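For reproducibility, we list the full input for the flavin mononucleotide complex.
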Amino acid sequence: MIIDPKTIPVPIAYQVLTSVVIPRPIGFISSISNAGLVNLAPFSFFNAVCGEPPMVMFAPVNRNPSKDTLINVRETGEFVVNIVSREIAEKMNLTAGDYPYGANEFEIAGLTAAPCEVVRPPRVLESPVNMECKVHQIIEVSSQSWGGHLILGEVVRFHVRDSIIDKDMFVDPDKLHAVARLGGPSYSTTKDRFDMIRPVIDRANWKPRTAGICEDGG
Ligand SMILES: Cc1cc2nc3c(=O)[nH]c(=O)nc-3n(C[C@H](O)[C@H](O)[C@H](O)COP(=O)(O)O)c2cc1C
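The corresponding predicted structure, in tokenized form, follows.
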């Protein structure tokens, strides 16, 4: 099937998009208003962007009024990305309800708000990793009703649970136990994994000198 997105209803195009761009990592974003109102919400339009400085992005889709996270992040220029482990997935889901501005989703979901080192918003104590972020840039990508904003943030502190990181700073994915978003109400974990070594290219003929090795026997 070939689909011209302009010929189908916007929600259907959104459904196709979000069921093929999978699995999407989830940025569980805590933020705070200037008046001190704390907010927590998940965003699967989320990823890492670059390494120097370490930078992440997430994207709130438009809503009228704007999503609380966007309001707070615009106001304060700060947010925290909390990683969602399988253990707190149901609690994360509870925070995604359409609560009125000012509702404290930490309390609603029974999650613990712990202080950060550099930024004002609290972090989720039950998350195995928290990344304190300062806004780098907010870009309005589209003002249409299913449009949205891209928020880029520089990570200024990592909090990584000691039991999941080794002395060489490798995080064990089994211990992180992160969940990702699939299409509709579906989620996945990172249990089904395989390794591939990237090819080394021989610059004399631009062919791979070593082939990628698939380490799951496949
Ligand atoms: C797993 C998951 C991922 C989500 N990803 C996004 C997203 O990327 N962008 C978005 O605008 N809303 C997303 N949502 C919906 C928001 O979390 C929801 O609109 C929430 O109420 C926004 O909260 P806020 O108004 O407190 O910022 C997601 C919901 C779930 C459960």
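The radius of gyration is 19 Å. The pocket of flavin mononucleotide is lined by residues 26, 39, 41-45, 59-61, 67-69, 93, 96, 98, 181 (CB under 6 Å). Both points were considered when choosing residues for closer inspection.
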